[in-house]
Amino acid sequence: MGVASLVLEGGGDEDLAIAALLHDVVEDCGGAPMLKEVRRRFGRRVAKVVDGCTDADTYPKPPWRERKENYIRHLKSADADTRLVSAADKLNNVRSILSDYREVGESVWSRFNGGREGTLWYYRTLRDQFLRHRPNRITRQLELAVNELELLARGNAISAGQESHPAVGA
């Protein structure tokens, strides 16, 4: 629901809100047969966006880093509809990470296949990729959220005596 709300706030229409609601259904609930069902029920445009937001439609999924690198490459040529829904999804994710990070601290990173450094790399790279296209309300909010996450993580790394990496664009 959060992703759909962000899409609507970002200027998306009903089709894009539906795609936002369904953005994970292919990778989490059945792969290509599920995409076919989305197309049948909601039309080509919704299916195209859902497909464009999918980083893997096979089980088992390819290795985490490989999937994320492929997804980032895909975004370079994705259409504006897909970029809007994807950026809203990533903004929603980063906001959730920030909320959880404030509550549980560094242990939040254990929830992610990429761990601390991989997760920060992924969202930093996504932020930069989205900002290469015409920035909009969602991508600017994503930029702020990722920057905030990096600053929090860097501050905790420094206080814990860990080596840290400067935030890109901060």
Structure characterization notes:
- With 170 residues, this protein is mainly α.
- It has one domain (2-159): Hypothetical protein af1432 (Orthogonal Bundle), CATH 1.10.3210.
- 69% of the residues lie in helices and 0% in strands.
- It has 9 helices and no strands.
- Helix 2 crosses helix 5 (44-52) and helix 8 (115-132) runs antiparallel to helix 9.
- The two termini are 30 Å apart.
- Residues 164-170 have low confidence and may be disordered.
What is the gyration radius calculated from CA atoms?
16 Å
Number of domains: 1
% residues in beta strands: under 5%
How would you name the CATH homologous superfamily? Hypothetical protein af1432
Count of discrete alpha- or pi-helical segments spanning 4 or more residues: 9
The secondary-structure element order is HHHHHHHHH
Report the CATH C-level class. Mainly Alpha
Count the beta strands: 0
CATH fold annotation: Hypothetical protein af1432
Can you tell me the overall shape? globular
Distance between the termini: 30 Å
- Calculate the mean pLDDT score and round it: 92
- Biggest sheet architecture: none
CATH architectural arrangement: Orthogonal Bundle
Class inferred from helices and paired strands:
mainly alpha
Spans of 5+ residues with little confidence (pLDDT < 50)?
A: 164-170
User: Helical residue percent?
Assistant: 55-70%
